[in-house]
Write a structure and sequence with these properties.
This protein has about 200 residues and is of the alpha+beta class. The chain has five helices and six strands. The protein has a six-stranded mixed beta sheet with strand order 1-2-3-4-5-6, with helices on both faces. It starts with a helix and ends in an 11-residue tail after the last helix. The C terminus is likely disordered.
Length: about 200
């Protein structure tokens, strides 16, 4: 007997529970991380999806699961299919969005990216042992998405680190540059004022 798509929904629900999003009654564990099956209770998210039908009918459309990380105003959309053959249509990511898990997730991400940073997750399979998972990021206002190379459903901390870690090094390096530049100025002043070193032999950054 063929398994229904609901089996995949339940597998994903179990993964959400294992990774600390919800409890067994589908109650949110972290008050700052909201999880919904289908339609959310967030006005901005619902507005963005108000014409997101994958059949292009201009009617509302919703993924299987929606997660909203209120800390970063990040939305995670999860679209799943029971059939592994319906995981991803790689020829054109913006086509066959109603047939393929990854394409469907990216379809919803495209509707949300004007208002949020978005992570789109496509999950396929009808057994926990043979799931396919692909994860993409679509930054707020960006023209296109990027592959996060995460092949499992994981906790919110991992997604935060993966998506926002790149901002920290830039800030860190900028602070280090300012510190080095300040120290170089002090050394140059010392070389000039106390040792009489001429300009072209002094230190510059």
């Amino acid at each position: 007997m063929a398994r229904l798509e609901k089996v995949t929904d339940m597998i994903v629900f179990n993964l959400l529970r294992v990774n600390g999003y919800v409890d067994g009654n589908f109650n949110n564990i972290d008050p700052k991380v909201k999880v919904w099956a289908k339609k959310s209770s967030n006005i901005k998210i619902n507005k963005a999806l108000s014409k997101a039908s994958k059949r292009a009918t201009s009617k509302p459309g919703y993924p299987e699961y929606i997660i909203h990380d209120e800390v970063n105003d990040l939305v995670i959309v999860i679209e799943n299919k029971k059939d592994l053959k319906k995981h991803m249509y790689e020829a054109h990511f913006d086509e066959k969005v109603d047939e393929y898990a990854v394409n469907g997730a990216l379809w919803y991400a495209a509707k949300l990216k004007d208002e949020f940073d978005v992570i789109a997750i496509g999950i396929s399979g009808n057994s926990i042992d043979n799931l396919l998972v692909d994860t993409y990021a679509w930054r707020k206002g960006a023209e296109t998405f990027s592959n996060l190379n995460i092949h499992e459903l994981t906790d919110i901390k991992t997604y935060r680190e993966k998506l926002y870690a790149e901002k920290e090094p830039k800030k860190k390096y900028a602070n280090e540059y300012l510190l080095i530049n300040s120290e170089a100025t002090k050394i140059n002043d010392f070389l000039r004022d106390y040792l009489g070193v001429i300009e072209h032999e002094r230190l510059y950054v």
